[in-house]
Structures are given as structure tokens and as C-alpha cells.
Amino acid sequence: MTAGLDFEGWSCPLPLRDTPAVVMGHGGGGAMSGDLIEHLFLPGYGSAAPAGSGRSDCAVVTVGGTRIALSTDSFVVKPMFFPGGSIGDLAVNGTVNDLAMAGATPLYLSAAFILQEGTAMTELGRVAEAMGAAARAAGVQLVTGDTKVVDNGSGDGVYITTTGVGAVPEGADIHPGRAAAGDAVLISGDIGVHGVAVLSCREGLEFGTTVASDTAALHGLVAAMLATGADLHVLRDPTRGGVAASLNEIARAGHVGVDLVERDLPVPAEVRDACSLLGLDPLQVANEGKLIAFVPAESADDVLAAMRAHPLGAGSRRIGACVAEHPGMVVARTALGGTRVVPLPIGEQLPRIC
């Protein structure tokens, strides 16, 4: 397969050049994923990929004068069922949230399934029912799809790819490139919950209490934020790579720095304990029902009030600020008064988490 490729002609940096085969880290949402997109996919697509594509979870295009949001995502979570959710509702909520991060009202979804031969029909039925329930709750319709089956041992139960279409309201201009010095950085609640929920189920770990995934559709919360009239600069749901990956991507896209206050980060005790036990960084653990917002400082209080009035934003808080210093870098102020760099993850701490 690689015989016709001239690796020396590629401009890609480490680690892609040194990994002639795909590794798990390439799907982790961190630096390796970015290298794969920037130095393999986009050059391969050439002029078929518009400038700026591949750098966001959602594209906004204009069709007949109407602004449409378009997003696609694949889900390979293991196990398929975990405390608080399943691959079915995750597939719906994840794509709805990608649309919502552009300010869009989600309308339609498609769903493609790759099924491993031998998967129990009862399990597949549970996945389909979870997808239906999540779609009804989100107010979207599943309008088309596809199904393929692979040999036993060639897959792992059920993989799902969902594509979503949504309508972008007039005046909404929300994307990472709009991050500006002076913006307040807000988050809608506790972080790291989804990753720990899946890990605890996968590994049979117990933390003294059941940790349930936070998977949820966030477009209602975003609508409440938009209703304040604030000029929302950036919205992002910190899934793969967690808060650390999302903030680093925003900092680089906006050519700004991000200063966090570590004690203000909402890390619940069970997540902190699990991460301490396993040597994980809560900032790099996946979330599926939280969002990060960059808003002008003068609008922060109004937006926070609207977020806290919504059931999915009751735990919202300000966690830092966008600054002109150290562009492209995220820095956290520690409880001891020092600072530390919050790096972009290279790969993924917890593979197969969404």
C-alpha cells in the first residue's frame, strides 16, 4: 500500500514521519491527530479541501443564502454500554454538540453502522433504541444511513458514524479564530466525568461511588447563551483530549494565550481520585456533556447567569482568561502561586473513549 508514496517528500514533523503505520494515538484528538490531518489528509485532498478545513469539528457553509452547519463524527467506544449512556446516545449527542458549537440548531442526522459478525441482535437493538431516544430528546430526525458487516474478529461489536446538519442563526459567528485577548473563559460544569465513567466500567474499577457519563445534547444551553445577546466568540465541547486539547487548539487558532486558575477548575473528587490513582491528568480526560466558552469580559456575568439557569449549565464557572501574552500556549496558575504549561496531548490517555 505504501510502495507508491514518497515519504521523504512529505513535510510532516514527528511523530507521523516515524510511524509508517497508524497507531492508536492518531485517533486521540491530540497532536498526533493534528499531524495526520495537516500533513497527510489535507495534502492528499489538495484543492478539494477549502482553506481552513480540517481544523474544526463543524463547518459552516452557505447554500442558497442560508448558512448551514455540517459535522460528521465516528464512535468506537469500548464498552458499548457504560454508566450513564451507550454508544447509541453518544453518537447522537456528540454530533448534535458539534453543530451546537457553531451556534447551530441541529435538524437532521444520518447514521452509518459497521457491525461485527456475531454481535447479538439484543445489543444492537439496545443501541438503536438509545439513538432514537437521544434524537427525540434533542429534537432531531434520523433521516438516512447505511449498514456494513465485517468478519468476526475484524471489528468490535458496533461502530457508528453520524453526520449532522443544522441551521446557523443570523449574526452568529462562532469559531476558534475569534478568540481575543481579554475574553473570559467559561466552562459549563465538572470535567473528566465521561472518561472516568467509561474507564471504570472497562477496567472494573470502583471509586466508592458510581461515576456516570455526562453525555448530553448541549444545543439548548447554547441557545440560552445566545439569547443573552452576547457576542460569543468561541464554543467548544472538550471531548477527546479533554479541556487541555480544546484550549490549546483555540489558543493556536486565535494566536492568543490562555491563563487558567487551577483552583477554579471544576474537577469532582471521584475524578481527581481516579486520575491520581491511574496517573492521569483530569484536564486531558474526555467529556461528552460540557462546553467551553470564550466571551467578551463585559458579557461574562450575563452569559454565566444564563448558563447557570439551564439544567446542563448549573455548575458553570469562570476558569480563566484569554491574554495577548504567550500566544498559542495554555498556562495554569497553581494553588502554590506558581505556573505550569498545560500542553496539547500527544496522543490519547484513554483510547476508545468515544
TrEMBL record:
<dbReference type="InterPro" id="IPR036921">
    <property type="entry name" value="PurM-like_N_sf"/>
</dbReference>
<dbReference type="InterPro" id="IPR016188">
    <property type="entry name" value="PurM-like_N"/>
</dbReference>
<feature type="domain" description="PurM-like C-terminal">
    <location>
        <begin position="181"/>
        <end position="325"/>
    </location>
</feature>
<comment type="similarity">
    <text>Belongs to the HypE family.</text>
</comment>
<protein>
    <submittedName>
        <fullName>Hydrogenase expression/formation protein HypE</fullName>
    </submittedName>
</protein>
<dbReference type="Pfam" id="PF00586">
    <property type="entry name" value="AIRS"/>
</dbReference>
<dbReference type="InterPro" id="IPR011854">
    <property type="entry name" value="HypE"/>
</dbReference>
<dbReference type="GO" id="GO:0051604">
    <property type="term" value="P:protein maturation"/>
</dbReference>
<dbReference type="InterPro" id="IPR010918">
    <property type="entry name" value="PurM-like_C_dom"/>
</dbReference>
<dbReference type="InterPro" id="IPR036676">
    <property type="entry name" value="PurM-like_C_sf"/>
</dbReference>
<dbReference type="Pfam" id="PF02769">
    <property type="entry name" value="AIRS_C"/>
</dbReference>
<feature type="domain" description="PurM-like N-terminal">
    <location>
        <begin position="56"/>
        <end position="168"/>
    </location>
</feature>
